[in-house]
Input
Amino acid sequence: MYRTFKLDMPQSLSDALNMLGDGGAAIPLAGGTNLLVDLRANRISPSHLVSLDKVQELRVICCKDGTIEIGGRTSVSDLLRSPEIAKGAPSLAQAAKVFGGQMVRNAATVGGNIACGSPAADLVPPLLSLDADIELTSTTGRRRMGLAEFFLGYRKDARRPGELITRIGAQRLQTNSVNTFYKLARRKGDAITVVGVAVTLTVAQGRCTRARIALGAVAPTVYRAAAAEAMLEGQTLSAPLIDAAARQAADSASPIDDVRASAEYRHHGVHVLTRRLVAQAWERLN
Amino acid sequence: MTFERKLSIRINGQTVQAAVPAHRTLLEMLRDLGHVDVKRGCEKGDCGACAVLIDGEAIDSCLVLAWTVEGKDVVTVAGLGDAEAPHPLQKAFIANGAVQCGYCIPGMIIAAQSMLNETPNPNEDNIRLALSGNLCRCTGYKKIFEAVETAAAMIRGEAIR
Output
């Protein structure tokens, strides 16, 4: 690479935050699987990078009451190694498995996948389907917000200069619940998502008490299909109702045509995949 | 202004000192130092040709800044074995005819070794998952998957059919 920059290698979170408080010029470097590609393509030309490689306190997965707390620098492969994720956030484990290729999974981080702001970020639909929130930390303090509120528009988010995504908190899967993710892409590995769907269903006394449908790569940001969820909650599900909710989810999408697929195909994908995942979840719970 | 630093890096068991600018990738540094067994492919993290082991885990060296591997153990495919003393993966790739042009093979072998470090008894799913970031444009992947299976059996000390 031709453009040079200042590179800091902090050993602790507090050092990293101090370095990132550099008047907004410093950019955090986590796994580098997006950032280095953007650097080489001259899409960005930062003057100062702060590598999180040695900030081990951000590489953690722990269970706290009903939530799973994930450190921002946790790698995608770390998710796959974690029995807590496999049990408490199965859709996240499924997404981790189809995320890039092995070397990308070994490097890429959960915080980085969120921070890159891509509508096709594979970890985000699962996290939204588990009501995730995130912790943003800077030298001036820390704040927490719902992950859904973090995304403001296409590659626009609520992170302020000097802030770092330090923690991601996902609701641990409750009993009588199913949580799944499906990635539609040209092939199984090493591919960018065409449509990503994550579903959580909770059932009690023959009714759906809680529905989450999170959609990736079909709008400027990953988002929850709230109207479709509302059609399912409180109901005893049937094939026509599931199909109607899936159609509502497809109607809520605003995909684009690109090299990977047409907007029409993506609409259709949301309809079919939402119907399939909700029906399978309902079947498993009854 | 250039930001340059003298790094001390362990490559294939040998500690090397080199003056490296902050923006130099591990791939660029390795090839500059003569480790041309590490292949330059897409430089975007898609093809896996440049994979090396960093502390036992396969990473695309094109996506790593050289400074970040200071104090870590870097192993390239030549560090696993050579013509005189080939690694079981290298033997198995030859024996199974898994190599055509050969450009992707260093990355394939590194990715396979990374998986075997955690999963000594892999099934086909484990192997496919491990090699999902390595592209071969000559042929298919069948013989490559079979070679990894053979190598795993060799490493476990089983008799080979």
Observations:
- Residues 82 and 90 of chain B are 8 Å apart (CA to CA).
- Chain B has two domains: 4-78, 80-155.
